[in-house]
Design goal:
With 265 residues, the chain is of the alpha+beta class. The chain is 19% helix and 33% strand. The chain is built from six helices and 16 strands. The model has no long low-confidence stretch (mean pLDDT 96).
């Protein structure tokens, strides 16, 4: 692993040559790191990922690289297209595909994978846990992205999940413990109670980080496979986004999408 935090250049130079000299990495490895989002350029007070290998640097530019071979060599799982509306598209995200990148890269994020597959601009407007699977909508223009983002911020998007939880749950529950000091509301309804596990439906009014996982764990019913919040089951996180409803970002038509039966529990 190599972490070169943004370093100021002193003379005009090519980005790949400068980084190769500073790190000892070959130019081909530098170019791979660029295309996969691990190189950062700081210019005029703004920091962004640098992807063009032939970019010329000039003082007072700063450039850095966060190189981790294991991350850069990872091939992302492929999402499945459910519907393409032109201005946005709806996808089935598989478990393991991320909604957001890190300083070490973003090639394993759904927006980058979809953007490369469709060969058009792609914008992330909401998130789904890396270890969960199910429905996500992605925008393909700045206006559509702004419109969809506003719907999520204003909580007008309907989001329904299913989860397999530990224990037998027989009654519906409202879970409203604040998360990180912010309101968080989850409605839980049992679908199929068994002796030691229950399939539940979860509708959320807010979208805090790990909201469903935290709320269910605090209720005494952690999600099966959620080792972070109290379930030691070795299976993957048993959480799926099964329904997504929003307004078409161009004509305002109400839209609802459902996860096909073969992807459900």
């Amino acid at each position: 692993m190599i972490e070169l935090k943004p370093l100021a250049v002193t003379d005009d130079c090519e980005a790949t040559a400068f980084l190769s000299e500073q790190t000892g990495l070959s130019k081909s490895r530098i170019k791979l790191a660029m295309t996969r989002g691990a190189v950062w350029l700081e210019r005029e007070g703004r920091q962004r990922r640098l992807r063009r290998a032939k970019t010329t640097l000039s003082p007072p530019d700063k450039i850095g690289i966060y190189y981790d071979e294991s991350i850069l060599s990872t091939e992302p799982p492929k999402p499945t297209l459910l519907s393409d509306l032109g201005c946005c598209s709806i996808w089935i995200k598989p478990a393991g595909l991320m909604s957001g990148g890190s300083r070490f890269g973003d090639h394993c994020t759904i927006d980058r994978v979809v953007g490369n597959e469709l060969d058009r601009p792609t914008f992330l407007v909401h998130r789904l846990d890396k270890f969960a699977w199910g429905l996500m909508v992605l925008a393909h223009g700045k206006k559509s992205a702004a419109h969809l983002s506003r719907q999520f911020q204003e909580r007008t998007v309907s989001k329904t999940y299913q989860a397999l939880i530990r224990g037998r749950l027989m009654e519906s529950r409202l879970l409203d413990t604040p998360i990180d000091g912010k309101p968080a509301i989850s409605h839980v309804r049992p679908i199929r109670p068994d002796e030691d596990r229950t399939l539940v439906e979860v509708r959320i009014e807010t979208g805090r980080k790990h909201q469903i996982r935290k709320h269910l764990a605090e209720s005494g019913h952690p999600i099966v496979g959620d080792r972070l919040y109290g379930s030691e089951d070795v299976s993957g996180l048993q959480l799926a986004a099964v329904e997504l409803g929003f307004l078409h970002p161009e004509n305002g038509e109400p839209l609802t999408f459902n996860l096909p039966a073969e992807y459900r529990f």
